[in-house]
Amino acid sequence: MADRPGGTARVATAFVLSVVASGGFIAAYQLDAGTQWLALALTVALGGLGTGLAWWSRRLMPQGPAEEPRPTLAPPAAEEQRTAETFRAGRQAIRRRGLLGGLLATAVGALGLGALWPARSLGPAPPTGLRATGWREGVRLVDESGAAVTTTTLDVGGVLTAFPEGTDPAANDQVVVVRVPPDDLDLPDGRRDWTPEGYVAYSKVCTHAGCPVGLYQDVGYLLLCPCHQATFDVAQGARPVFGPAPRELPQLPLRVGEDDSLIAGGDFSAPVGPDRWRLGGQG
Amino acid sequence: MTDHTTTPFGRLAHWVDQRVGAARFTRSTLDYVFPKHFSFLFGEIALYSFVVLVATGIFLALFYSPSEAEVVYRGEYVPLRGVGMTEAYASVVDLSFSVHAGLLFRQTHHWAAIVFLGAIFIHLCRVFFTGAFRRPRELNWITGLTLMVVGIGEGFAGYSLLDDLLSGTGVRIGYSIAESIPVVGTWIAYWAWGGEYPGEGFLSRLFAVHIFLLPAIIATLIAVHLFLVARPHHAQFPGPGRREDNVVGLRLWPSYATLSVGFFFLIAAALTLMGGFLQINPVWLYGPYDVFAVSSGSQADWYFLWIQGALRLMPGVSLQLGPWTVANQFFPAVLYPGVVFGVLYLWPFLEARITGDHAEHHLLDRPRDRPVRTALGVAAITGFVVLLLAGSDDVFVTTFDWSIVTVRNVERVAFFVLPAVVGLVAWKIARDLARADAAQADDAPRPATAAPVTTATAGGLDGIDVAVRRGGARNGPTAGWSLGAVALAGAVVALGSVLRRRSRGS
User: Fold this and answer.
1) Residue A97 is assigned to a structural domain of this protein
2) Helix (H, G, I), strand (E, B) or coil at B86
3) What's the CA gap between B317 and A208, in Å, rounded?
4) A125 contacts in B (CB within 8 Å)?
5) What CATH number does the domain containing A226 carry?
6) In which element (H, E) is residue B14 found?
7) Which positions ≥6 away from B389 have C-beta within 8 Å?
8) Which of A189, A190, B258, B437 has the most crowded CB, counting CB atoms within 10 A?
9) Are residues A53 and A164 in the same domain?
10) Prior bond to B35 cis, omega within 30?
11) Chain A contact probe: residue of B291, B295, B395, B412 with most A CBs at under 10 A
């Protein structure tokens, strides 16, 4: 097969360009010329090499088409038979000591089980009871900076994220506090005295996939999770009204303590966080 | 005959051959013939992206610190100065701003990951639509699928290491998905994370998984996959001179080897260009992760975006079994992908059982040759695309001021209806094309359908050369168009991920 004309010159040009660009990369690096110059030089260095090689192959090397026979994969039946017999003969020798084989399997199994045991160090066993949060009867609500949340902190329509005072807050402790007109609240029975002056607090951990429920829309009193758009109606006990969340956000009972500060009236109304196998039983 | 032992390299080859007997194997390797078709390149793109991933990854690992210790940032990026963050996130910001070429290699690494998985996906589609998974290549299919699954895990582990607000949100969702697995889920989550979320030392575990465990598995699987490809030699499209018992194409030595090494450098060049000029994952804009914060418009990389979409489309229900709960997120994020990959793993065996075709196949189908298979594949891809859209619908909704409720309900219907509709259309197109081909074949005698091939030597066989070229003109473009459409879809996915990961603070 004849070489295509001009092939050598093209390939040589590409390689020379690559050499120059490699020099350029070193220069750009030394001069701290920035990401784009480094990228440009390296792209030309790599691209020149790649183009040169591709041209060399396509223009100056045999293009065929070449042909070769495809190997047969399956061995001749006789060979397979011989292999099977060799294996069986060996297995016969093992089987003659059936007890030893059984013991060997047991020993290997026991060693395997033992070797798995250090996996226990990976983490604690999950708790069997209700997952503890930092909220107890009488714990004050504080904001991100540690300042106490009081009845004057929010205007009606306002929202903030609060934590239990005096602890390093865990992920499951965060609550979103919203202030709504008390008359618009339509909470489940037994929660009437949980919302002093229209302050309502819910777990900020989405009951769908655990993202913080970070967006609040005052019109319609809706809390929205930005991850999968689960939407909860604050006025109705954070009932899910749209999206994939299967249950309401757990509510934190609120009371007014000394200095008009907001304090927890107890722990959450339900388990915090996404659904899991033993959620309902909590045992 | 020249004596090869007169040159230094020849003497070395002789020395090795005397000890391992490599000459025969080496000769058959040098003579290996690669059939040529553009659609065969996607596997190579994946392979070479992996090489780029390893090269850039080694560089990144030298500067990254998987420490969760709290530090106050005092580096070069002014807007973050004085902000508290983990050492891990700080090391990534420093790597991006203070280390020469650090940002280039980080972005190239990220793009290479996206291209790696994108190429695997398109390669999977090529193999599916051309029936390349049929006997004797079922094991190639299984190792390839496993590569994809492990690759997806590797990608997730990689972008989760940065500990920025976006990736931290992904990790939180990952925890709730792990937790949702019936019976053992809580144990898995507690053991993987070292306790209740956010756990204890998760980043250093993830680092070990990302730079050692999964890359070792991927490299091993690649080796097995390549061995399984080379053992029966490449499958090829039908054409004049091409039979079940031969391979027609370009010989490895020197033509294909040179071309392929050149192709590697071109891939590396393209990824470097993307890494330098297309910003990706600007974590300094997202800010450090904080379990109490989240950003709106958060989106996963494309290979996880479909799971995110499935999580969004799932109605708000979970299954109560007495005292136990099968969590909502289990269905879209564990069961659905489990079923998808389960069917994919079993597909070669299912198809063989349904069609009763258990024979060896080395000549590939064109998608039109198997309208039902083509329709099923197109339907599955359609469902996948609907989920990708659902995974990014919050961005559309805010951009165009649409109603999220309407959009979500349309998507829920579309997820079930569109695959059926598009699949039927694909079936009809495939069948019509096949019929048109058959009619054409009846009307006009096809040129040189069976050019006799008698010898197999390196270099030019002008007889087949002409015949293959003519056959290529007839078969190549048609098979090419359908595969081109798949490639285009992949390119759209890749482009879409340029736009992904928008972040507005909450």
Assistant:
1) no
2) strand
3) 10
4) 187, 190
5) 2.102.10.10
6) helix B8-20
7) B309, B396, B411
8) B258
9) no
10) no
11) B291
Return the axis-axis angle of helices B257-277 and A35-60, rounded to nearest 10°. 160
Closest CA to A185 of A244, A239, A264: A239
Shortest alpha-carbon distance between residue A87 and chain B (Å): 24
Q: For residue B37, what are the CA distances in angstroms to B228, B234, B338?
A: 19, 11, 33
Tell me the per-residue pLDDT of B422-459, one tens digit each, with 9 for 90 and over. Answer: 999 999 999 999 999 999 888 765 554 444 444 443 33
Compare B476 and B318 and report the one with higher pLDDT.
B318
Residues B202 and B194: beta-carbon distance below 8 Å: yes
Alpha helices, DSSP H, located in B360-450: 371-391, 393-400, 404-443
Reported for B215-224, long-range contacts at CB under 8 A and 24+ positions apart, including other chains, are B215/B54, B215/B57, B215/B154, B217/B150, B218/B50, B218/B147, B218/B150, B218/B151, B218/B154, B219/B50, B221/B143, B221/B146, B221/B147, B221/B150, B222/B47, B222/B50, B222/B147, B224/B143
pLDDT in tens, B211-225: 999 999 999 999 999
Which residue is closest to A282 within chain B, CA to CA? Answer: B323
Residue A202 resides in a domain: yes
Question: Is the preceding omega at residue A65 within 30 degrees of 0, hence cis?
Answer: yes
**Inter-chain touch B269–A46, beta carbons under 8 Å:** yes
Asked if residue B464 lies in contact with residue B451, where contact means CB atoms within 8 angstroms, the answer is yes
For residue B198, cis peptide bond before it (omega within 30 degrees of 0):
yes
- Sheet with A215-217, edge to edge strand ranges: A215-217, A222-224, A231-233, A239-242
Residue A71 lies in a domain: no
* Tokens 């090269």 belong to residue: B55
Half-sphere exposure of B351 (CA within 13 A, CB side): 20
H or E stretch at B301: none
Q: Establish if A159 belongs to a structural domain.
A: yes
Q: Give the structural domain span for A244.
A: 141-264
- pLDDT for B448 equals 46
Tokens 């949060």 identify what position? A133
Q: Is A118 on the interface with B (CB under 8 A)?
A: no
Per-residue model confidence as pLDDT tens digits over B222-244: 999 999 999 999 999 999 999 99
Over 70: is that where the pLDDT of B22 sits? yes
Mean pLDDT of B392-405: 90
Of B263, B328, B405, the CB nearest to A242: B405
- Rounded to the nearest integer, the mean pLDDT of chain A is 92
Domains with residue ranges and CATH for chain B: 38-365+457-499 (1.20.810.10)
With beta carbons under 8 A apart, name residues in chain B contacting A35: 101, 103-104, 107, 276
CA distance A58 to B259: 7
Between positions 226 and 255 of A, the ones with CB within 8 A of B are 226-230, 240, 242-247
When divided into structural domains, chain A yields a total of: 2
Q: What is the ipTM of this complex?
A: 0.93
Question: What are the E-state strand segments in B322-373?
Answer: 324-326
Does residue B293 sit at the A interface (CB-CB below 8 Å)? yes
pLDDT at B297: 74
Locate tokens 């007169």: which residue?
A: B6
Q: Do A64 and B185 touch (CB under 8 A)?
A: no
